[in-house]
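debug: dumping io for the single-chain case to check the tokenizer round-trip. Nothing else runs in this session.
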Amino acid sequence: MSDVTLRPAGDAAWFIELEDRLDEAVNDRAIAIGRAVCAAGLPGVRDVVTGYRSVAVHVDPLRADATLEEALARLASEVTVATGQDAAIVRVPVCYGGELGPDLPEVAAFAGCSEDEVIALHCGRTYRVYMVGFVPGFPYMGTVDPRIAMPRRESPRVRVPALSVGIAGGQTGIYPTSTPGGWRLIGRAAVRPFDAARTPPCLFEPGTRVRFVPIGADELARLEGQP
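debug: decoded output
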């Protein structure tokens, strides 16, 4: 297990860390480890959170026993990563530009192209959800075409409207709720990444593949009016 590091994070969590690089194979392995830990039913495990290249295992220190570290190490080293099973693609309609995407002109200037070309570049790739976090349901997706991979704002906005689609360097994502944020806003999505009344509440999970589809304001209003 030389490429895996297992370390405690206080008395209520363990971190399982893999190779320090953004890579689909590494992320696949982190996802597989996270699922294996969930399925193992280890005493004291309260929650499992998968990151880009890591797994955080949150535990109840009053219930976890001395065998937990050994069990986590074994699972991390023995896990089998599924191959050849492409995840279904989630298509996300987006209305780009205008008041809904106030940073689209700046991204176009950064890329040295038109706003329509930015939209085409953003919609021209299939993205991978590497992790979900920050706020419930926020999908961190990659990777954005380098031409439009504009860094995040130096001064974050105090309030980003819910369902805003943004770019931050090589990543793109969707704000599930209104929250502060520094990503470059280029449009508004017609899907809700998080809905507490939905089962499951998160539309995306690590490993999900996503394609963005451009729509007009009328279509956005129609989709938003659907139950």
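debug: round-trip ok. The helical segments are 24-40, 68-78, 104-111, 115-123, 217-224.
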